[in-house]
Amino acid sequence: MTEKALRLGTRRSKLAMAQSGQVADAVSQVTGRPVELVEITTYGDTSREHLAQIGGTGVFVAALRDALLQGEVDFAVHSLKDLPTAQHEGLVVAAIPEREDPRDVVVARDARKLTDLPSGARIGTGAPRRMAQLNAYARTHGMEIETVPIRGNVDTRIGYVRSGELDAVVLAAAGLNRVGRIDEVTDFLSVDTVLPAPGQGALAVECAADNASLIAALAELDDPFTRAAVTAERSLLAALEAGCSAPVGALADLLADGQTVKEMRLRGVVGTTDGSTLVQLSTTGPVPETHEAALALGSELATEMLAQGAAGLMGERAQ
Question: Of 130, 227, 234, 267, which one is the catalytic site residue?
């Protein structure tokens, strides 16, 4: 008798289905059980408002978490950058698999790079974080650009470029990789130009906190370096008291000496969306061995950023 299939809750978008399918295959391999995808529509999928208006954090997550808590699905896959920083009672992130490329990318007309865009180029993005950094870059490099807020899936966003409505759009490399469209990228943005969203490129596999056997099975997919990095990034975000629609970028990367990983560097940025003011700092320390050490790395850098005036740039910082 074959074991009952595990039910994986996923958003319905092409990207969500692709990344959930990859996790489903991995879970099948470690458990020996079939995994079926259960499609769930979230508020973030149905609302046409801009993410900054509907509150950003959690709009793609709440319905999946409800399904988990009600036992309709056994586990769920989220893009980690959509996950609120506060721990949810009754649920646990059992695995954070190895991260995809965290960078942002440009898809532009005529195969142009960011630096080749015409004067006055209209660049689409839904993220205040990207707007702040692109506008700051343009200011310091004597470029004239206009950032245009957009929403929609990968097809919709790239469609704005194909139709000529926009000169370029900025997307996450990881998403395009997962849906097999990375060859449409015309420029990979260095993290020195645009820091990604905290957790960008990483997935979170979440399940009920009381399901010990499933937690143990899912833990085999966990990548400890990715977990340490994103924990530090999200700790920075939490300490700045910013939702995922706030203009915060963060990236923790490992600094290696030959084959030996020596240290972790955490970089953070917060700015006004017009790019006129940015607070950008970094810190380097030993690779965190514990969850607490990773949290401390993020909160310490956030404290320094707040001391440099980051709080005044958030726009929607909680009182």
Answer: 130
Task: Tally Cβ neighbours within 10 Å of residue 122.
Answer: 17
Residue 19's pLDDT band, with cuts at 50, 70 and 90, is very high
Nearest residue to 232 via CA among 175, 283, 186, 189: 283
Of 271, 276, 280, nearest in space to 246 by CA: 271
Distance CA 27, CA 36 (A): 11
- 82 is known as an active-site residue: yes
User: Is 7 an active-site residue?
Assistant: no
Distances (CA, A) of 299 to 179, 305, 306: 34, 10, 10
Evaluate the CA torsion angle 192, 280, 78, 263 in order and state its sign. positive
Distance, in Å, from the CA atom of 84 to the CA atom of 79, rounded to the nearest integer, reads: 11
One-letter amino acid at 53 equals Q
Task: Look up the pTM and report it.
Answer: 0.88
99 is catalytic: no
The span from the CA of 154 to the CA of 84, in Å, is 23
Are 135 and 273 a contacting pair, CB within 8 Å?
Answer: yes
Residue type, 175: G
Average pLDDT in the chain: 88
Instruction: Out of 11, 81, 234, 267, pick the active-site residue.
Output: 81
Q: What is Dmax (Cα atoms) for the chain?
A: 68
Which of 157, 227, 234, 267 is catalytic? The answer is 157
